[in-house]
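user: Kindly work through both lines:
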Amino acid sequence: MSDLIKSIKLNFTTLYFHENFVISVVNEEAVFSHSQLMEVVNNCKEFFNEKRFVYISKRINNYNVDPTVYIKLEEIRKNLIGIAIVSNNVSSLKMAEFEETFSKVNFKISLELEEAIEWAEALIKKVGL
C-alpha cells in the first residue's frame, strides 16, 4: 500500500491522501451533500492538482449520501477517474449499489480496503497519469 502523505480532518470527514488516491472516513450520522462534496473536491484539487486519482470511501460509520452529488460531481470533476466504496455493512453496500447507478466514473464496491486500493492503483496504471 502506498504511504500516507497527508491527512485533513473536516467537520464531516477525515481525508487520508496517498500518492494516487484519497481515503475518506465520513463521521457517524453525517449527511454527505453538495456542500460537503465541494469541500472534498477543493481539498483534492489542492493536493492532486492536475494529477488523476481515485476516491475511496471507507464506510465504517452510518451516514447518508445524497445520490445527486454524483450528478454534481460530473459537472466539476476533471481528474477523478474512479470511486470505490468499502464496507462490510449490508445496508451500506446496498446504498453503494444504488449510488453506482448515478456515477459516471469507474466504480468499485468492496468488502476490504486493500482490495479497493489494489483496484485504484490498477486503474491509475491503466488510464495513465
In short: The longest strand covers residues 80-86. The chain has one domain: 6-127. The mean pLDDT is 89.
